[in-house]
Design goal:
- The complex is a heterodimer of chains A (114) and B (113).
- Chain A is mainly β and 114 residues long.
- Helices cover 0% and strands 49% of the residues of chain A.
- Chain A has strands at 5-7, 10-13, 19-24, 31-37, 44-50, 53-57, 65-68, 75-79, 88-95, 104-105, 109-113.
- Chain A is globular and about 40 Å long.
- Chain A starts with a strand and ends with a strand.
- In chain B, strands 2, 4, 5, 9, 10 and 11 form a six-stranded mixed β-sheet that branches. Chain B has a five-stranded antiparallel β-sheet with strand order 1-3-8-7-6, with no helix packed on it.
- In chain B, a hairpin with a 6-residue loop joins strand 4 (32-38) and strand 5 (45-51).
- Chain B is globular.
- Chain B is mainly β and 113 residues long.
- In chain B, 0% of the residues lie in helices and 54% in strands.
- Chain B is built from no helices and eleven strands.
- At the A-B interface, strand 5 and strand 10 of A face strand 4, strand 5, strand 9 and strand 10 of B.
């Protein structure tokens, strides 16, 4: 197992375009999280899946954002009609049910909206 | 005011010195406390976690939690240039489903050879 994988690593898009990111968690982890991190800030929670169910969404996740985790495996995060304020690092993490001890992050997808 | 405050630094120390990092928080419900290390262009990596108040040691790292003061610390002994990174504190109320983490803004540390 190579940890949490995210694809792509970098994405540059024009304002107004749609983008989709993919996350492959550690295979035995049933929880999957998306966080957003802007320059000089700590990660901020966006949403969380337990298996295929999306159990919580932050108010940061506007209706332009949608996340899915079909079959409880990989997850996708889509941003529609991107805005310059969406420029950030999007981090995926996974954990087991005992995840209170912290979870494993991927290396992130860096989005730049021009 | 943010729930978790952390001095952004940068904190510059000579190799071999002790690095002292801390966070303050306002939510008294936080029970689990973690420290992550983040290298440039990488995701955060869990260093240590502690539950409630007390100390925990792991190699060159010592984490302290003082819930009465809402203050947590991380000490790095015998610092090495490879310790140069951003250090993030994170915390969560309970060991419950979801347990989303609230992070501080991170402190950038530079260990000079």
């Amino acid at each position: 197992d190579t940890g949490v994988s995210q694809d792509p690593r970098h994405k540059i898009t024009k304002r107004g375009q749609n983008v989709t990111f993919r996350c492959d968690p550690i295979s035995e982890h049933n929880r999957l999280y998306w966080y957003r991190q802007t320059l000089g800030q700590g990660p901020e929670f966006l949403t969380y899946f337990q298996n295929e169910a999306q159990l919580e969404k932050s108010r940061l996740l506007s209706d332009r954002f949608s996340a899915e985790r079909p079959k409880g495996s990989f997850s996708t995060l889509e941003i529609q009609r991107t805005e310059q304020g969406d420029s950030a690092m999007y981090l995926c993490a996974s954990s087991s049910d005992m995840g209170a001890y912290g979870y494993t992050f991927g290396s992130g997808t860096r989005l730049t909206v021009v | 005011q943010k729930e978790v405050e952390q001095d952004p630094g940068p904190l510059s120390v000579p190799e071999g010195a002790i690095v002292s990092l801390n966070c303050t928080y306002s939510n008294s419900a936080f029970q689990y406390f973690m420290w992550y290390r983040q290298y440039s262009r990488k995701g955060p990596e869990l260093l240590m976690y502690t539950y409630s108040s007390g100390n925990k040691e792991d190699g060159r790292f010592t984490a302290q939690v003082d819930k009465s003061s809402k203050y947590i610390s991380l000490f790095i002994r015998d610092s090495q240039p490879s310790d140069s990174a951003t250090y993030l504190c994170a915390m969560t109320p309970i060991k419950a489903a979801g347990n989303k983490l609230t992070f501080g803004g991170g402190t950038r540390v530079l260990v000079k050879p």
